Amino acid sequence: MTLELPGYAHVYSGKVRDLYAPLDESGLPREDAVLLVASDRISAYDVVLDTPIPDKGEVLTRMSLWWFDQLADLADNHVIATGAPDVPEQVAGRAILVERLDMLPVECVARAYLTGGGLKEYEADRRVSGIELPEGLVDGSRLPEPIFTPSTKAPQGEHDEPMPYADVEAAIGTERATQVRDLTIAILARGNEIAAQRGILLADTKVEFGTRADGTLVLADEVLTPDSSRFWPADGWQPGRPQPSFDKQFVRDWLTSPESGWDRASGEAPPALPEHVVEQTRAKYVEAYERLTGERF
User: Fold this and answer.
1) Residues 56 and 145 in one domain
2) Best CA proximity match to 107, nearest among 125, 124, 123, 129
3) Segment 93-102, tens digit of pLDDT
4) Are 161 and 254 in contact (CB under 8 A)?
């Protein structure tokens, strides 16, 4: 659902974020900036669920801003302003004014632990994104070193697919591909370094980059949030089974449980989330924010 924001024109709505262009003095959308609004919508299995998670948009916005500060020496980010007068009161706390960039057509994913789609690939041929891994790894295994496992940027409603590194080079050039690979792995490593001090393991993360007109690479969208990353409590880590988590795995698990009655392969929309799942999911997001940042939400 789009909002009526005086002085802004709606540009685009993704699964969980909405973009609005600020209007210039002549009433035309500006081409240098965009208002990025994080909604309380939640998606799972590439489907936007009908049930929102209260405060989710604000938690993710505040967490991204905190991480942008922790990563400032590694990469420029797209933030221009976080408050009035650039951010309307109506979306205060869950919106930021950001640079309009030329976004790279690649989802940049790095993994420090084996799970999820990476585990499925590994079980097929002991490789993830074409990278050969040792025998004997199981769900939750720490990888010998973090790996870059990019994926396509699928249109809404379709699934991102693993992308061989050669395809990344073909899409954005060898030099740029090397740059985003190294930077994505460095962001995951810095995230794990900081999270470890707070008793959290960062299993994997997805980041997005864009470029300025001068070719500068810029970290964009969100960074190291429970929507874009898997966070695990370190004291509960036990390879060989799914790990307890601070992310939306909780929602995925309920959707595939007998209680939900939903069949992923049916093509039907998932059911509404029950109140107890909504409350526990919100609590997980808030706990992740508070443990990582040391701030009260």
Assistant:
1) no
2) 129
3) 999 999 999 9
4) no
Residue pLDDT, tens place only, 197-229: 999 999 999 999 999 999 999 999 999 999 999
Q: Which residue range(s) make up the domain with 247?
A: 102-293
What are the tens digits of pLDDT across the range 147-175? 999 999 877 667 788 999 999 999 999 99
User: Do the Cβ atoms of 182 and 194 come closer than 8 Å?
Assistant: no
Scan for tokens 């799942």, then name that residue. 277
In a domain, 49, yes or no: yes
- Structure token pair of residue 163: 């992308």
Which CATH number do you get for residue 167? 3.30.470.20
Q: Could you tell me where the DSSP H helices lie in the chain?
A: 56-70, 116-125, 165-172, 174-196, 249-255, 275-293
Answer whether 0.85 is exceeded by the pTM. Answer: yes
Asked if 225 and 293 count as a contact pair (C-beta separation under 8 A), the reply is no
